[in-house]
């Protein structure tokens, strides 16, 4: 995503998850399934706070999908 | 897909699946095969509603193929 | 492939397979080997008709190679 | 990341890890989990000093995630 | 490779393999190791003639490396 | 890397390995670990001379990391 298009539905959906402190699961191309809440996003990465509040800075190209958790 | 080219056959086909609430299968580079109907698309993601109506926001670069299901 | 360069040898070869309804095999980065004939192409996807005439819309970045089948 | 956008949260977070000589783990799409501290970053790579102070120049597109280590 | 930069060392090396009908091996991200001689190249694909003279159109992003064979 | 930015730390580090005929290891997304010395680089590829002085032309997007070897 070269330009960060804040108007995109996908960016807005992540923004709503951040605002609502929504629990999510993020599946990576490595097969890892990371759980936690999204702390921030920019055009290169999505930062996830895992259950121990550790910041996991995930590269967008490595993400397969994001879905709400519970 | 930097610019969202709504005129592309591939974008139009997805749009028709959305309009017709078509059941589809989406194969990911992880090997996951996700089933459901497509809720929306933008130039970065395709959002799939799975059988439990959960929104799975799939990154386009992680998609291998999309095909109708049944 | 940002701009769809119809003059490229690779695009022209696919176009000839479409015109000649040529049977092909498409190997994906997932390891899948899909067989059928190519229905259309655009700068994001190649649409393959499998033996049951189902449209499989394949993302170009997920393609490893395309070769004639028989 | 074509242009190196130093203002991005993701770039600033890495910059803080460099300044603080923070121990991190970097998960790669190969499944490798590399540990050490980040030495420098540019728009193509992140250079990690492993425990034996060897410079491991990691391609950004190969990174799944970066997280603090302990 | 958005623009086809014919002056690049990598493009020129492939061009020399084409001219000299050099036998090569091409390793793909799928793990496939394809052998044959390169027939043509453009900015999206490299076309390999396998031992049975079948045209295998390989996507450049799927290539790990190219090396002479024997 | 669309434009070849020779001023980048990552490009300069590779250039120093070339000048010093440094032995390196290059880990690929396929899991291959290639050893040798870097012969040249351009914006698409890095060419490695393996122990038998064979030129292995490696696609940059397929590289996970480069590190000195011994």
Summed up, the helix count of chain A is 1
Number of strands of chain A: 5
Radius of gyration of chain A: 11 Å
Give me the strand/helix succession of chain A. HEEEEE
Count of separate structural domains of chain A: 1
| Rounded mean pLDDT score of chain A | 94
Largest interface: A-D, 20 and 22 residues
Specify the structural class of chain A: alpha+beta
As residue ranges, the low-confidence spans of chain A are none
The CATH topology of chain A is what? SH3 type barrels
Domain Hfq-related (chains A, B, C, D, E, F): 8-68
Protein name (chains A, B, C, D, E, F): Hfq-related domain-containing protein
Pfam family, one (chains A, B, C, D, E, F): Hfq_1
Organism (chains A, B, C, D, E, F): Phormidium nigroviride PCC 7112
Short description:
Chains A, B, C, D, E, F: Residues 8-68 form the Hfq-related domain. Chain A is of the alpha+beta class and 70 residues long.
Features:
Hfq_1 (chains A, B, C, D, E, F), five-stranded antiparallel beta sheet, homohexamer, alpha+beta, Hfq-related domain-containing protein (chains A, B, C, D, E, F), SH3 type barrels, 70 residues, LSM_dom_sf (chains A, B, C, D, E, F)
């Amino acid at each position: 995503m070269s330009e960060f298009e804040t108007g995109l539905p996908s960016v807005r959906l992540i923004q709503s998850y951040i605002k609502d402190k929504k629990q999510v699961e993020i599946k990576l191309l490595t097969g890892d399934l990371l759980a936690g809440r999204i702390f921030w996003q920019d055009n290169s990465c999505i930062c996830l706070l895992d259950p121990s509040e550790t910041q996991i800075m995930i590269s967008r190209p490595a993400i397969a999908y994001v879905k709400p958790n519970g």
